[in-house]
Design goal:
Elements: H1 2-15, E1 22-31, E2 37-46, E3 49-56, E4 59-66, E5 71-76, E6 81-86, H2 87-95, E7 104-116, E8 119-133, E9 141-154, H3 159-171, H4 179-184, H5 186-201, E10 204-216, H6 221-228, E11 231-242, E12 257-261
Parallel strand pairs: 6-12
Antiparallel strand pairs: 1-2, 1-11, 2-3, 3-4, 4-5, 5-6, 7-8, 8-9, 9-10, 10-11
Helix pairs in contact: 3-5
Length: about 260
């Protein structure tokens, strides 16, 4: 009986997915509206929680995504307070401005490879198109298109946890940008979320993305969108580490004032 029980426990252990917290160091740069200069960021994933710390100049801006609790915490290094977003309520609100069912998305191998941070990355061409109402107004309809190559390291260390987090977040309609900006440009926020979801489904970590973000519209808004011009955004992985991460990294620091948002 003891042997049977021991064998059963061992079999269950071998069948269980291996989890390893992951830390990703990245460099980001871009041009166009809302993109100014270069920045360094650190992304940490532990189960269904993710923390990103982006440093620009002397300020570090932090976002903590707690998918199971449906909470997003946003704060910076200069204030001892954090905005707490109810993502279930926010998702319902942004859903009124974006028709996700009509989104068009494709990710196709381009048969190229590139060496990035000591790993061989496979090239994919990505295009995501999303219709939305700018600022929530149906009179300001626009189409946001993200297009460009992504370089993905399949089965990279931490890729299982990376994919697991993004799938769980996508299933609940999450976005991965500041909700205040997403309210003004919901199409761009949802298009970015769809891009991350598609990349995670490949089974690796994107070590580099080179995206062009285009906005277009019809009627009176067409001229406005054309004046905005195109935006570009490049993100490159500098290094990836796996290893246990402390639970307190995924909550605002003790003593911070919490400001409810939705």
């Amino acid at each position: 009986m003891k042997r049977i029980l021991a064998g059963t426990v061992l079999a269950l252990a071998l069948a269980a997915p291996v989890r390893a917290d992951v830390t990703i160091h990245q460099s980001t740069g871009g041009t166009g509206m809302g993109m100014a200069g270069d920045a360094k960021s650190v992304t940490r994933i532990k189960g269904n929680k993710m923390r990103t710390d982006m440093t620009m100049g002397d300020t570090t801006r932090t976002m903590i995504f707690d998918v199971d609790a449906q909470k997003l915490y946003v704060f910076d290094s200069k204030k001892k307070e954090a905005d707490v977003w109810d993502m279930a309520a926010f998702g319902a609100e942004i859903g009124k401005a974006v028709d996700v069912s009509a989104a068009k998305a494709s990710i196709k191998p381009n048969n190229q490879t590139r060496q990035i941070a000591g790993h061989s990355a496979a090239g994919y061409d990505i295009e995501v198109s999303m219709d939305s109402a700018m600022g929530g107004s149906k009179d300001m309809m626009m189409t946001v298109t993200l297009a460009g190559p992504a370089w993905i390291v399949k089965n990279a260390p931490g890729s299982a946890d990376y994919a697991r987090f993004y799938k769980a977040a996508a299933d609940k309609g999450w976005i991965f940008s500041d909700p205040r900006g997403a309210k003004a440009q919901p199409g761009q926020a949802r298009a970015m979320a769809e891009m991350y979801k598609r990349m995670a489904e490949i089974g690796g970590i994107p070590y580099q993305t080179d995206m062009q973000i285009k906005m277009s519209g019809s009627g009176p808004m067409a001229a406005v969108f054309s004046k905005m011009g195109n935006m570009t955004m490049t993100t490159t992985v500098d290094s990836v580490e796996t290893g246990p991460l402390a639970d307190d990294l995924f909550t605002p620091p003790a003593g911070y004032k919490l400001n409810p948002k939705k």
